[in-house]
Specification:
Distance between the termini of chain B: 30 Å
Helix content of chain B: over 70%
Largest sheet of chain A: 7 strands, mixed
Number of helices of chain B: 12
Largest sheet of chain B: none
CATH superfamily of the largest domain in chain A: Dipeptide-binding Protein, Domain 3
Number of domains of chain A: 3
CATH topology of the largest domain in chain A: Dipeptide-binding Protein, domain 3
Strand order of the largest sheet of chain A: 8-9-10-1-11-19-12
CATH class of chain B: Mainly Alpha
CATH class of the largest domain in chain A: Alpha Beta
Number of helices of chain A: 17
Shape of chain A: globular
CATH superfamily of chain B: MetI-like
Oligomer: heterodimer
CATH architecture of chain B: Orthogonal Bundle
Strand content of chain B: under 5%
Structural class of chain B: mainly alpha
Shape of chain B: elongated
Order of helices and strands of chain B: HHHHHHHHHHHH
Amino acid sequence: MRTGRKLSIAAMVMMVAMSSASAASLKVGLQDDPDALDPALGGTYAGRIVFEALCDKLVDIDGDLNIVPKLATEWSWNDASTELTLKLREGVVYHDGTAFDAESVKANIERMQTLAESKRKSELSPIKEVEVVDTHTVIFKLESPFAPLLSVLTDRAGMMVSPAAAEAAGDNFATAPVCSGPFKFVDRKARDSISLEKFADYWNADAIGYDSIEYLILPDSTVRLSRLQAGDLDIAERIAPTDIQTVKGDSRLALHESQGLGVSHLFINVREDSGSALAQHPELRQALELSLDRAAINQVAFNGAFTADNQMLTPLSVFHSKDHPMPARDIEKAKELIATTGVEAPALEITYENSLTDGRVAQIIQAMAGEAGFKVELLPLETSTAIERYLAGNFQLYIGNWSGRTDPDATLNTFFGSAGSQNLNGYRNAELDELLDQARREVRQEERIALYNKVTDILLTDLPTIPLYHPSWFYGAQASIEGINIYPDGLLRVAGVKPAN
Amino acid sequence: MSAAVAAPANTGSRNRSFLLRVLSQRSAVIGLAIVLFFVALAVFAPWIAPYDPIASDWLSVRQAPSAAHWMGTDDLGRDVLTRVIYGAQASLLAGLIAVSIAILAGLPLGLIAGYFGGWVDTIISRCTDALLACPFLVLAIALAAFLGASLQNAMIAIGISAMPIFIRLVRGQVLTIKNEDFVTAARGQGMRDRSIILSHILPNVVTPVVVQATITMAVAILAEASLAFLGLGQRPPAASWGSMLDVARQFMLDAPWMSIWPGLAIVTIVLGFNLLGDGLNDALNQKDD
């Protein structure tokens, strides 16, 4: 009897504890206010963090950048690499109750390809037709092979929204998005907060440890950190590299990190008519690279928290070339190279968006290149002016911060392909164009790796840009929260995240 | 010309007694001492600063104050003491040039508006009111952002923003002086307006303008620091107290010396100019013995 009562009390206590745990709300501090909460329109990193909880995608990545199932459980290419067949997960519904099926995938792809303001048009342009085979099988038909397609589907282009809700809401869809993710949209206060609540019919509801999520917009990293320390936030994104020790030193907090896909690089204008000595003398570009000590830049500017590197692709990627290790600083060689060109104290001007981190990197470069004999001027500009100049190709050197993509094509073709949208420095190389095109059509990984190795070879010879470092993602969280895993895309995946006990 | 007889208001002896009154005030003397101290720092910076203000030392980044670096080093391994000393140059230069711009533009406009009155006065005064309606720092930030980030543009922006105070001050002074007997007498003697303004009115507005200039120096130095803090002033890597604070903000807990010294320098120099300005103002408003 007595033990029975004790047990029942214990059971009641446990139930209360469990219900309080499952009634928990997760408070996440974001650095920026996301733009439109519609996967077809979104263009911000903060928006992608919110989408992780709101909208499931067809496929996902894991920590090693492998493609893994999400809404699509299996996929296969045909022999000509022109058709991608996807098997869809069964028993999935959108937040409005609409069933997730092959028709809705077709509708989503077509919506993102045709919506006037869609930002996914170029990503999805290789898909010429979506064929519905049965309720849970679709085929994406391409005009020509396009290997990066699967990686495109791991981001917003692969996020499925309810076609019925999209049709009904029209242009207002982003104000109350309806997807199929673990959380559904509740409310949004501009520049303040975004609230989501748990979606009871989610296909993987058991993995969801919170009943609601509130994203708070807190632009200052110091403020995010202090609110995290005060227990006011559960998780804060983009902890400043200089604050990492503070988080590590606080026993109530935990640091979650991942190397990132992004790269910070010194983009060089190589246009013949730019009048820049760097454009006329490739030796000067080489000398500039040799004058820099990337490891020291990383150490001084970021406490060594990032990854110093000489390539555009993250070392995490299998396409990162192992044949081209980062060269050591060599001031004497740099001076010799400058001497061979006959240019006296070559004048350089570095344009950058006026942020403290880029400012620090620019000043370090100025000092290092100065020791080799370059005369470096700094031109910090307010963000919109800087971007305007960047897009117009009106710069000699520009500190570019590229967020990176899972597939190398999206970085290398975009910056160095003759028709790339970020090819703003006038770089043209026919041989490189050919290699990039081949790599884009090649779905066999080993062959692609060999092709991108050649691409890196050309880029490190021509030096149209000098990659400096790959930033890492740092999330601070309460130590009691379990299951936080940050992948190279830097997003907060909510499945598996739960309060302790 | 009988100008000297007609204008007894401003003579050498009167100036001397004004100076004595200023020096008899302890706060003014302290203010003057502080200002002279910073002027000396700025002028002799190349000789007294222990290091090169822009030379980075990668091996001693954010080091606490030590025998080698009395005020520690910053995020790029530069000596903070050296940068505080060189920062005095940017601050004082910004203050001096901005106030000069404000006076050179404001003084003549104020004289013209006050002396001639009528529609000239209406136009100048209404424009002054419009400029004054906009908060000083907001106006300076807007102008600096428009002109582009550099110390030179920051000076121009601050100068233009400080100008309306001088127009209004001078106009007010002129309005009271122009009806004095000696001005009426000069006019009666057939002196031309230009001569009256230059030889009778101007000497009588110089003192309040000097007082105002001292106080405006404090405001201008603070504004330069604010603009530099926002990235609209002195371009890196040159030293400026405001931009030093901007960078130091990130390391408030790790490296407090990066923010304490430039912050203290700004507070002290602004205090110095304010004490001096107050002292001058009190001396000016004391009745003649």
